[in-house]
Amino acid sequence: MTDSSAPDDAAALPLDPAPSGAAERATATPPHFADGTARSLERGWIAASRFGGLVFFGILGALGSAFLLVAFALGKLGLPAFLGAGLVLAGVVGVALLLSVFWPKWEYGRAGYRILPDRIESWNGLVFRRAVSVPISRVQYTDVKQGPIQRHHGIATLAVHTAGTMSSDIEFPGLPPALANEIRDWLVSQTGSDAV
Amino acid sequence: MRSELAPNERCLHPVSLVFRVIAHARSLLLPAVAVLYLGRGEGWQAWAALFFVPILAFDVFRYRTLRWRYDADELVVRQGWIWKSERHVPYARIQNVDLKQNVLHRALKVAEVRIETAGGAEPEVSLSVVSLAAYEEVRERAFAGRAQARPAAALPSAGAAEDVRSEPGTSSSAPETILELSPLDIVLLGVHPGRGLALLAIAWGTAREFGFFEDWEKHAESAAQDSGNPEAFLKAATVLIVVAGVAGLMLLSLAASFVEYWNFRLEAEGEVFRVRRGLLTRQVQTIPRGRIQAVTVEHPWFLGLVGRARVHVRTAGGNPAREEGQRGGGRHFAPIVRRERVAEILARIRPGIDVADADWRPLGRTAPRRFLVGGLVQVLPLAALAIVFLAWYGAAIAIGLVAFTVLAARRRARRAAWARAPWGLAAREGAFSTAEHATFVDKIQAVDLFENPLDRRHGHVTVRVDTAGPLSRGGSDVSIHYLPREIAEDLRADLVGAAAASRFRW
């Protein structure tokens, strides 16, 4: 990214936001997905996050019960303490597993993304909601990521990196892989010209 | 074992060797003492220390292989003898060039130079040590590219801004002093309460580390027994020690302030700011004007009493692992300045960004309630604890705490404001000490909206503007809390649209 654009780069300070980049872009017709409609994630995202939650809390529960059983077998834990701790563990893990099943479905209705010719936006969160908006001229580079579970459910994650600090990695999960690749290619073509 | 020095390449000053050896000796001193102290009788620990000698020798000689050259648009740094590395640092990415000279450096007329690039994760270039002439060369080369390319590309957009930028004559490269600190300024910085508290914490921590308190208790007890009236003696001794401690800290803080800020000078040279300071260790920071990502004007209550304020700037450079004072280049931009001069200093950073003069808008109608609730949530548990443990004294303390919190929350709500200006966004915060944070449209990386359940009940949103910077840092980014949802959404759309239409340069 730090290529031959040096003279241009070292140029006058952007005291005023220079509209030149936007003017160039406006002439090119925006791609079909940059229409500004709010899209929800793919349904596969629910199953994928459900699976992740179930596996995580399942392992946690298994480890917890193994620990309790070993402690009981070695005589470090009396029967009442064992039963009590087991009940608490079962309750906590049970609630967590239940939430893992339902939470993604609830959150699904609250998560989405939107692409405009000059910016990309995503929002998510059920209790704590967050919505981020990134000007396309600030995108430094992009990745499309797809793990085995995501692949199984036919979704991909688009990761957009800016030069920022707190929001320097913005993830768009639950995209159809083909669209994720298309968006990435488009972002690369948009930012290659004028990013640092 | 020196690698070939190409004609256009530079190398470190020969006395670098001395500083490398000193640095290693210092880092080895403590383990060496420990080994000698603990390992009496057993020889093997001492032999183990010898194991480090070749490593040290290797490192010292590796240092001698550092070479750099100035290409058309990048700095190329080569290092290594067996494992070779070559780093290319584009001039366009250089954020600041810093110089540090301790007493020994000054005696030998050399300096440590650090070149900071954008992005906290990227390693910076450190040249330790070079001659002062070499420092001047680094500085000139690093920022020359900008100046040369300027006329060609400045034509279309920046032309208008150019006219306002400065009076004729100042655009030449002769350094011009913007701010110098008088001895009174340095004294004010030294007696600043916030600073005293930090020192108190350090002193207390050190004292505890060395077991001072246990010793003192023991001595005090025995002395009290000897004196005949133990209770009165202990009281008097405590008061005396507290008074002496505060006075000592005050003096220490004053001395530290003189060491840090003596000879402070902020100057502008063309497009680059330079900050010099230091009595014993001299530091020079070089901050290109265009690399400033955000500006903060602080009004600590204490400085406000004497009609002064403070201006910080932040660049994207700087390693977050480094000490606070060094982070992000410009914490010392104008550590203390008369309030009347703040506007002038801001105008030097960018024309027209006088935050005091901005079109400040208050938060929503329900925001004061949020400040009050936020304050009470923090203070009520404390008040309850005070009552439980101290009874009547506690009740008095609790009432005082709550009253203060209410007062602070009201002031906070009155002060909180935001301003959207053609150049960017500013936000004001604080109760007794206030601060105005500002960032520029062309530096905005992303705009976030946050909403917690309490926000949702009030229809509030937090707007946070993200700018480039070291990965972790304190308080320079611009965020606005408790903004009504519709206003926040409009503001975000507006800011992102403006940012998208501008070019970002580090």
Give the topology:
The complex is a heterodimer of chains A (196) and B (506).
Chain A lengths: L5 H4 L10 H8 L11 E2 L3 H30 L5 H30 L3 E5 L2 E6 L4 E7 L3 E7 L2 H5 L3 E7 L6 E7 L1 H15 L5
Antiparallel strand pairs in A: 1-2, 2-3, 3-4, 5-6, 6-7
Helix pairs in contact in A: 3-4
Chain B lengths: L9 E2 L4 H23 L5 H7 L1 H12 L3 E4 L3 E6 L5 E6 L3 E8 L1 H6 L1 E8 L7 E7 H22 L5 H7 L10 E5 L2 H9 L1 H17 L2 H16 L2 H32 L3 E5 L2 E6 L4 E7 L3 E8 L1 H5 L2 E8 L13 E10 H11 L11 E2 L4 H49 L1 E5 L2 E7 L3 E7 L3 E8 L1 H6 L1 E8 L11 E6 H16 L6
Helix pairs in contact in B: 1-3, 7-10, 8-10, 9-10
Spatial order of the strands forming the largest sheet of chain B: 7-6-5-11-10-9-8
Listing every helix as H and every strand as E from the N terminus to the C terminus, the arrangement of chain A reads HHEHHEEEEHEEH
Largest interface: A-B, 44 and 68 residues
Reported for the largest beta sheet of chain B, the result is: 7 strands, antiparallel
Shape of chain B: globular
In CATH's first tier, which class of the largest domain in chain A applies? Answer: Mainly Beta
Number of structural domains of chain B: 4
Q: How confident is the prediction overall: mean pLDDT of chain A?
A: 83
